[in-house]
Design goal:
Helices cover 66% and strands 0% of the residues. It starts with 7 loop residues before the first helix and ends in a 30-residue tail after the last helix. The relative contact order is 0.17.
C-alpha cells in the first residue's frame, strides 16, 4: 500500500490532524509532533529560495512524508507497517520509554530507510539523478539536524546518564544521514536489477527496524507509565519482549 503523494501543504494538514487525534502519551504522537515541525520548516524554506531546485525538493518532501503516512494508514487498517516502522508502532504505549526514545526511533526509521527510497522516487518522478539532488539533500539534512537538536534539548533530562544515555548513544543523526546517502547510491546502481534492489531494500528496512527496537528499550524509572492508549489497527506489543500480543 502506498499513500497518495500530497502537496507539502496537504502533508502539514494531515500531520496537524494526526497531532489532534493522537493522545499525548502515544509514542507515534511524539514523533509526529517533531516531524510536523520539520515539515513546516521545509515548507518555509521552499518559499524562501533556500534550495537550488525547489520544485524537486517539494516533490521529495511530499514523497518522503507519504512513507510515514503509509505506515500510519497501514497500522490503522490492521496491517503491519514496514519492518523499519514496526518497533515504534508496536511499542508506542510501552511504559518506561522516554519520549526522546520515541522521537529518535521515528527519525531512525524515516531517515535511514524512508529518505533514500524517497530520493530515488523523486529521481524517477522528476527525471533527475541523485547527484543533481545532493546539494539540496545536504540542505534538508541541516534542517533535520536543527530540529533534532531542539528536540533533544526540550526532552532530554539534564544531566543525563546511566541506561538512557547508553540507549541514546545507539543512534546519531550525522551517521544516519551519511548512511542514507550511501543507501541512495547503492540502490541507484541496482535500479536495473529489480530483484536485487528489492532484496537490498528489504534488508535495509529490517536492519533499521532492529536499531529502532534497541532505541525503544524500556528503562525502569524513565517516566511514569503512560496510559495504555489504543493502537489503531492492532494490539500493542508486550513491553517486556517487544513482540505483538
Amino acid at each position: 500500500m502506498t499513500a497518495p503523494v500530497l502537496t507539502v501543504d496537504q502533508v502539514v494538514d494531515r500531520m496537524t490532524q494526526l497531532a489532534a487525534e493522537l493522545p499525548p502519551g502515544d509514542g507515534v504522537a511524539v514523533f509526529n509532533a517533531m516531524y510536523l515541525t520539520v515539515t513546516r520548516l521545509v515548507r518555509d524554506h521552499l518559499a524562501a529560495a533556500y534550495f537550488d531546485d525547489p520544485a524537486a525538493m517539494a516533490e521529495l518532501d511530499a514523497v518522503f512524508a507519504a512513507r510515514y503516512l503509509t505506515a500510519v494508514d497501514e497500522d490503522r487498517a490492521g496491517r503491519r507497517p514496514d519492518a523499519c516502522w514496526r518497533p515504534l508502532f508496536e511499542l508506542r504505549a510501552a511504559p518506561d520509554v522516554h519520549p526522546l526514545q520515541f522521537a529518535l526511533a521515528g527519525m531512525n526509521a524515516h531517515i535511514e530507510n524512508d529518505l533514500p527510497l524517497a530520493v530515488l522516487d523523486t529521481c524517477r518522478l522528476t527525471g533527475r539523478t541523485p547527484d543533481r539532488l545532493h546539494a539540496d539533500y545536504l540542505r534538508v539534512n541541516a534542517l533535520l539536524a536543527q530540529v533534532e537538536a531542539q528536540v533533544r534539548e526540550s526532552l532530554l533530562p539534564v544531566p543525563v546518564g546511566g541506561p538512557l544515555l547508553h540507549v541514546l548513544s545507539v543512534w546519531s543523526i550525522d551517521r544516519a544521514r551519511d548512511a542514507a546517502w550511501a543507501s541512495v547510491l547503492a540502490l541507484w546502481e541496482l535500479r536495473r536489477l529489480p530483484p536485487a534492489r528489492a532484496l537490498v531494500a528489504d534488508a535495509l528496512s529490517g536492519s533499521v527496524g532492529m536499531v529502532g527496537r534497541a532505541l525503544l528499550t524500556p528503562l525502569s524509572g524513565t517516566r511514569a507509565p503512560a496510559p495504555r492508549v489504543p493502537v489503531h489497527g492492532g494490539r500493542p506489543a508486550d513491553p517486556r519482549t517487544g513482540a505483538s500480543q
